[in-house]
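Renewal narrative, Specific Aim 1. Our central claim is that a sequence can be written position by position from structural information alone. The example that follows is taken directly from our test logs and has not been curated for this report. It begins with the structure tokens describing the chain, in the order in which they were read.
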């Protein structure tokens, strides 16, 4: 009977972990989509600035604007795009880790069930 309660508890914990993992994966996908959208926007802004040539450009900071060169703005947009791409990659790595964690928990539960069956037999 104690073994049955242990299995029930393990199943509850696994169900909770799976639900939490699915939620975290969904949140990660939203973050990834936002990062990819921002990366695309930064790359587009950089390409637009390249078309303008070397002109003075204003960069918005809070409620003020700072005069900069277009080359520095292009570099800034490219750097932002790279940061967004890295953030999307980090989300993918986190997703893989979460999926592996759930698989490991499922494997442990299967082993517990098999052990229970062999002890009962």
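The sequence written for that structure reads:
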């Amino acid at each position: 009977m104690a073994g049955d309660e242990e299995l029930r508890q393990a199943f509850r914990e696994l169900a909770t972990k799976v639900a939490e993992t699915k939620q975290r994966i969904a949140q990660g996908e939203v973050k990834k989509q936002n990062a990819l959208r921002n990366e695309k926007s930064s790359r587009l802004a950089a390409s637009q600035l390249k078309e303008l040539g070397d002109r003075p450009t204003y960069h918005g900071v809070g409620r003020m604007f700072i005069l900069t060169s277009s080359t520095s703005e292009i570099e800034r947009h490219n750097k932002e795009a790279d940061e967004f791409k890295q953030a999307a990659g980090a989300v993918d790595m986190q997703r893989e880790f979460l999926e592996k964690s759930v698989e490991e928990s499922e494997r442990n539960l299967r082993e517990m069930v098999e052990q229970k069956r062999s002890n009962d037999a």
